[in-house]
């Protein structure tokens, strides 16, 4: 067996350094109960950085008696707000150890994040409310990642003592009302999500919500991206769709757009109008957000699925809802497929699986879809044996036990199959009259047919 002696030496040096640092720390805020052999290199450790600085990770406790007054169901919101307030101080050049003096290589340590909690592991590298940063009873548990240039254990320990006293002083001075407000904000979102079923909804898009996002090098996914700086057009429900009013946990009433159970909801419009951004915000409605994120009252069921094109290996999957026959090279039957699936077959499987498992809501974006699975065409009806989603909606609606939110821009047949819809113009939501659209589409096809025949006769 081959052993990397250099790695072993580094680990030994790191273990020795963290042990020496701990021996010299005197602050009562160090959570010594967690400093066990089992937690070493997990909850506490040192690591030499590429710039030769030393990263020191240790768990700490800060106490505030008034935390006992906070509602336990929203404690992660209060925790997240404390962390973000510390980050704001870091931007003011305070607590430099927590940011590596603001160095770009250490952005993960101090990057703002307005997501309170998420069902995905996105952003786990950022400092946020989680299993290591939380409030319990009158204690605030924080895992601090500190950067030091001097590797002398006594010097680092002394700096850690000074840092924790300054942090404790700052935390004690945070107004209770700020923590309480964020606590209630988190509970409001959880409570509304729990009420969706009783309201007959799968999603609620609150008026004045701001879906547009700002991305950074360490927040590249829309679920953790922050609110867009500058102009960010607020969502307002078109009056023709009759905004619904819902009461929040704290008694306040807000209005917004409700997406109903088993509804086919269309979002359409020209390019670069915010269609995908709105769909991503609805998808992000599974998460809880801090005040100021812009998506606090975009609330969506957690029982959600997305269908996209792609490629996968099938081992007996069922796509018979959409496929009446299989193309050459694919073995089995539509009910039991074996082989490398095409983009449309992959998407068909995703939708059919979601329907069979009782998913509340399925999200589809035309830009990421297999078009032949969504709408019918003359050539596809000749060659492929595919029954598109638009046809199933029109003729076999009883097979669709989930709601759909579908982004379209050029798939007119799919748009016409919707129950309700909006179109985005200048990033604002406008009422889409589906019945009127169907009538105009019918006239459009009649005119198109005449033009085709005239052109043929000219030849």
Automatic annotation (TrEMBL):
InterPro entries: ABC_ATPase_C (IPR046834), ABC_ATPase_put (IPR019195), P-loop_NTPase (IPR027417). It comes from the Archaea. Pfam families: ABC_ATPase. It comes from Methanococcus aeolicus (strain ATCC BAA-1280 / DSM 17508 / OCM 812 / Nankai-3). The lineage of its organism: Archaea, Methanobacteriati, Methanobacteriota, Methanomada group, Methanococci. Residues 179-442 form the ATPase of the ABC class C-terminal domain. This is ATPase of the ABC class C-terminal domain-containing protein. SUPFAM superfamilies: P-loop containing nucleoside triphosphate hydrolases. Gene3D superfamilies: P-loop containing nucleotide triphosphate hydrolases.
